[in-house]
Amino acid sequence: MAHPARRRHLAPLLALGVTAALVPQLALQSASAAPAAGPAAHQLAPFTGQKLSWKPCAADLPATLQCTTLKVPLDYHRPGGERIEIAISRAKTSVPGKRRGIMTFNPGGPGGPGLDFPDMAAKELPKRVTERYDLIGFDPRGVGESTPVTCGLGGTDLTFPRPNRSRQEFDANTAWSKNVARACRERAGGLLPHLTTRNTARDMDVMRAALGEKKLSYYGLSYGSALGATYMQLFPRRADRFVVDSAIDSRRMWRGMYRIWAPSSERAFARWAKWTAERASVYHLGESPKQVRATFWSLVKHAERERIELDGVAYDGAGIRGLMRAKFVKVRQSAELVVKLKKAASGQSVPPSPATHPTAPPSDNTAVSRWAVVCADGADWPRDAETYRRDVVRDSIRYPLYGDFVSGITPCAYWPKAAETAGPVNNRVPALIVQNEWDPQTPLDSALSLHRDLKGSRLVTVRGGEGHSVRFYTDTRNACADHHVDAYLTTGKLPRADVTCRATPDARKPSSAPPPFGLGA
Predict the structure, then answer these.
(1) Model confidence over 240-292: pLDDT tens digits?
(2) Is residue 9 flagged as an active site residue?
(3) Following CA atoms 392, 394, 398, 403 in sequence, which dihedral angle do they give, to the nearest 10 degrees?
(4) Catalytic position from the list 94, 177, 222, 264
(5) Active-site option among 468, 469, 482, 484
(6) Which pLDDT tens digit goes with each residue over 187-199?
(7) 439, 446, 451, 469: which one is catalytic?
(8) pTM here?
């Protein structure tokens, strides 16, 4: 995942060409993807035939990673109208005689920049894969070095999800949602309706055509799974070898994808409590799962009375819940962290945790581009504040760890109407899905649902696998899952049936890559 703080400098696009040998192919898309075939072919010719001028991306990236800018329509239903820019990158790793085409990457989000991802992929993927493809990265529309969206926001306005422990807190969050939506409507109202997953998939297809390729292979992580599935739906004949890692449920886009965190985190909490109780002599958090859970909730109550300071951050009760929600899937790390919280609460000195990644405050662009996509894509955002309030009351009882966070109101309740929503995914395009059993952002249930919708797919499940992403951003690579991914990308042959791999033991050392965006929490 490209880190928000990383600098990227792009060379401008020098010229738009008029050669459009691949335009007739671009016109052969679904009716929902563009206007009628004839006008689309003619009107998209300046985009699909544009000449790209490549230059080194940035001084802190290898010179072999080249960047350029692609022009695309803001609105594909009006391709003669306003244009926006998409920043793309390329690592030419293919070998003559073995080259199959291009492989495009999306590192997640929404809101995740991806320009430097080909550099990471070139290091992570084996030579037998990279020698078959040139690796392509891009910042999706609205993100980073592409035409960026901004609402002029900062500070706590960018905090999401937010707790809803009381009516007063819910009302404050309602006011926050209105203010964010109003600011975005005023600053970016013309851009917001077109920042959709379907339009980003169309941008990918223009990119494919401009690069002179008949087909496109793809590796998408987290939100990248939704983008990949959308491309397969809109352009099934142009999808070559597609891998999605940590899958979004297309039927839950988007409020449902956040709300699923509540029941999944309760399951992870129960698993952690059992695991920790079995090691009571090590962690001293309780000799039974019930006692371990009671220890955690006593820390939450303590923090509600008096904040607990750890690693320079003062946590209240909601802060403790928010801190631990995504961490409970990693049982050993969670036990160690709760031990630290317990010591800090009792006034004991706690050594600082080792820093594994540089941390930068989220930019306005990162948060706003995420909201833009989830608000535009999702048809499941109620417009009535009281619907959210009722859900908060119910889910706070059913899922006390995180239910009030993800059932609460968001700016999407007041967001400008989008040009389109995400739309259904239901096709037989071949694809490979890889998924950890214990993923805090995209739970296994989500991958199972996408697997059912992608009827040509195979699912590789890492049983006992912990964390968000199987291949990248992980402390523990899984040789079994990697084997199936590499074999598919190399040969094009999917496993004959779904595969279950066993988790790799915790390697006990941090990943060298920054963490994935993971839907923004």
Answers:
(1) 999 999 999 999 999 999 999 999 999 999 999 999 999 999 999 999 999 99
(2) no
(3) -10
(4) 222
(5) 468
(6) 999 999 999 999 9
(7) 439
(8) 0.90
